[in-house]
Amino acid sequence: MKGKIFLFSSGVFAAATASIICSATTLPYSKFERTTHLANNGESLGYTDGGLSYQKDLLAKNIALPLKVNDATWAPQNEPREVANRDFNKNAFFSSRQISSTVPLPSITQDYVVHEVFSGAELISALTNGKRCSDGKLRISLAKDVDVTVDLKLPNGTVLDLNGHCLYMGPDATIIVGSKTDTGIRDKETIHHSHTTERRSKRIYDKNGYAGTEYYDVVIPGWDEVKYHVVYAYEDNSEVKIFSKGKTGIIAGLTCPNGADAKSGAYYLREAHGSEGKSKESLFKILSGNLILGNLDIKGHNGGNGGNATYSSLWHIPFGGGDGGNGGDGGNGSDVFCVEPNHGNVLDEGYCTFIPGEGGYGGKGSSPNPNYWVYSGSKGKDGKKGSKGKVINYPNRLMR
Q1: Which of the listed residues 177, 258, 283, 341 has the most CB atoms within 10 Å of its CB?
Q2: Residue 317: its pLDDT value, please?
Q3: b/e for 246-285, b at 16 or more Cβ within 10 A?
């Protein structure tokens, strides 16, 4: 790991390059993680001074490193046992003036770990068991395009860098942000229904039989309806960030399954209809807290197509053939985000595109049974196209 240290002492500005090789216990960095810790990436990690303080943090990590600077040379003191090798370049200073002072760097013990994942299984494992940095963040980076077939739970403090890759969510998979926990408390609600008047009638008979109808009003007294509502606890202070460094990242929901076609040779008409295409409510389910997004293209799930119909084979009906079945309706496209009525927000930091899912096409209605004697059956109807989804169910919760 290479970094630059900038020292300010008696108005003199100096810089040096230090090569530090640390044990895996102290600095658990992989090859990928070391490349992400270069100075030009400092600003993407929240440092606004061009990476200066970021480099200083890395070099001072877990190392009480008072430096004695004399005659433009580095003289490390109290070197800990974790540091195995360190070479100092005496020509790295910009000034050759004599400096005689001890310059202690801050004692920083912040661990910075980025989990690099190559598959959906590794992504789920990192979210579940990944090591967090000392600032509480769980940092994950995609090394390639990833497919996920189950719900993806992003815990509080997750920072997911797509790194220009694609995250494909299966038709049954949802990205869940925040938490919603049943407290076991039930909120009692009493609804009072006012009295009503109901018109009734009765038949009148005399000795000659039916004599007419008599109408009268009946007053139904008011009553109370009691309902119990579940009380949930929300983690409103949670925060999850998804972004893509460099190239725009993609999060896409895969198309939902199509409806099943009716089996040929259906006997009854109800068996001759096509099934409806499958639908998905949303790609993201935000239960609480804030979801922060940046430099992403996000596409919801498309609805599945409706199944095609067949005709019924009612051969026992004299002179007539069976009717054609109706095609199944297409599934509805999913929303991109679904938030709770009073919890959860989406914050777009810029360069994001949100595309709702498209509705699936309706299945084809069937022609009537061609094997008839005299009268042909009727043709079935085509299924309806599914509706397009929305970006978010509560538009005021999306801040751009």
Answers
A1: 177
A2: 56
A3: eeebbbbbbbbbbbebbeeebeebeebbbbbbbbbebbbb
Decide: 8 and 89 in contact? Cβ < 8 Å. Answer: no
Q: Do 119 and 28 sit in the same domain of this protein?
A: no
Residue 290 contacts residue 221 (beta carbons within 8 Å): no
Measuring CA to CA, which residue among 30, 25, 5 is closest to residue 81?
Answer: 25
> Pick from 104, 126, 146: which residue ends a domain?
104
Task: Return the SS3 of 104.
Answer: strand
Three-state DSSP state, 396: helix
Q: What is the dihedral of CA 360, 362, 363, 367, to 10 degrees?
A: -170
The span from the CA of 87 to the CA of 2, in Å, is 11
Domain count, the chain: 3
363 and 327 in contact (C-beta within 8 Å)?
yes
Same domain, 73 and 155: no
- Using the structure block, give the residue that is written with the tokens 């000795």: 207
Q: Torsions phi, psi of 52, nearest 5?
A: -60, -55
- Enclosing domain of residue 197: 184-231
- Give the pTM: 0.65
Domain final residue pick, 166, 200, 231: 231
Consecutive 10-residue averages of pLDDT for the chain (400 residues): 38 35 35 37 44 49 37 36 36 37 41 90 94 93 96 96 96 95 92 91 87 90 91 93 94 96 85 94 96 96 96 64 89 96 93 96 91 79 96 94
Provide CB contacts within 8 A for 390, sequence distance 6+: 335, 336, 356
pLDDT of residue 88: 36
Residues 10 and 63 in one domain: yes
- Full DSSP string of 118-167: -SHHHHHHHHHHPPPPTTS-EEEEESS-EEE-S-EEE-TTEEEE-TT-EE
109 within a domain of the structure (yes/no): no
Query: Quick one: 174 and 255 in the same domain?
Result: yes
